[in-house]
Hints:
This protein is of the alpha+beta class. It has eleven helices and five strands. It has three domains: 49-141, no CATH class; 142-227, no CATH class; 232-431, no CATH class.
Amino acid sequence: MKLLLLTLFTLTSLVANELSDAYKKEYTFLKAQKTELEKRLKSERKSQADELYKAKQEVKNKQNDYVKLSKTLKNKEREIEKANERLRDKTSNKEIINSVLIQAKVSLGDYGVKVDENALSKVDELKKAFKGSANLYNTLSSVRTEYGKFYLLDGTTAQGEIVKIGNIAAYGISTKANGALAPAGNGEYKLWNKPAELSAKALYSKQTPSNIDIFVYENLDKDVEYRQEKTLKDTIKGGGVIGYIILTLGAFGVLLLLLRVLFLSSAGTNVKKVTDIVSNKLETSNAEDAYEAIKNFKGSTARVIRATLRNIKRDREHIEDIIMENILNESSALDRFGNFILVLAAVAPLLGLLGTVTGMISTFDIITVHGTGDPKLLSGGISEALVTTMLGLVVAIPLLLLGNLLSGWANSIKDSMEQSALRVVNLYEKLGV
Length: 433
C-alpha cells in the first residue's frame, strides 16, 4: 500500500514537474508573442500616423490646387467674357458698317457716287463713300453752270445753260427764254410760269443780287404743276351748290338792306324842317295854317304831325292816343324787311354748316373708294366744307350788323316822330291858338 502510495506520489510529482515545465515554456512563448505583437502594433501605429500625415498633406495640397484652379477659372471666364464683348462689338460694328454702306449706296447712287456694300474691305469702301459724300457736298452747296435743256411754257424744248443753286433750285438761260426752272419729272426741267429773268441773268453772270425770284424744289423725279392763281370765281365754285344758294340769299339780303335804307331815308327826312314850319305857323298864325303849310310834305313824320294838327283841339290824353296810333301805323313801314334780314343773317351760317357736312361726307366717300394716297382727290370735298362755312359767315356778319343798325335807325325815327308831335302839342297849348 505504501509502495503504491509512494508510487502514486512519485508519479504525481513527476506529472506536476512536467506540467510546470510546460507552463513555463508556454508562458515564455506567450510573453515573446506579446512583445512581438506590441512591436508590431507600435510599428503599425507609426505607419498609420505617417500615412495619415501624408494624406493630410496631400489634401491640403489638393485644396491649394483647387483654390488656384478656381482663381484661374475665374480669370479665364473674365477673359472669355471680354473676348465675347469684343466679338459682339466687332460683329455690331460690322453690321453698322454694312448698314451705312447700304444707305450710302442708296443715297449717293442718284448722284453718280458708286458704293459697293459687298467689298472685301468694308472700312476702305466706307472711307471711299465718305470721300464721295464730301465731294458731293461741295458740289451741291455751290452755284454751278451746266449745259442742258429745259421745256418752255408751250411744251417745246430750249437748249442753253442751266444755273444750278446746289440741288434745290435752277435757272435756265437760252435764246428763247430765261427764268427759274421747276422739275418736269425724270430729272428734267421746265420753265416756271413766274417771272425770274433778272434773277436768272444775274446768277448766270455770277452776280449776287440782294433779292432773287426762286423756285425751290425737293427733287427732280416728280413733275411740279404750274401754280394757278385762285380767283374769286374759283373760290365760289369750290363751295358747290350750297355756296351759290348762300350767295343768292346774301344778294337778296343786300337788296332788302338797300330798300330798307331807302324807306328809312324817306321816312326820316324833313323831320326838323316840318317841325320848324309848324312851330313858326303856330307862333305867327293858327293850327289850320300850319296844317296847310305841311300839307304837301311826304314822309312818316309829316303824316304824324298832320294827324296831330287835325286833332289839336281835342283834349291832351286823346291827342296823345292819336299820336301813338299814327306812330304805330308808320311802324309797319319803318320795320319793313327788318326781321327778314335778320332771318337771312341767321340762316346763312346754318347753310354754311350744311355745306361743311356735305363736303366732309363727299371727302369720306372719296377716301372709301380711292384711299388717302392722292390729296388732290380730297381737296374738292374739303374745299366745299370750308368755302361754304366762309360764305355763310361772310353773308351773315354784315347782314346781322347792318340789320341791327337799321333797326336802331327805325327806332330813332319813331322817337323823333313822337318828340316832334308832342312838341307841336305843347307849343299849341302854350300859345293857346
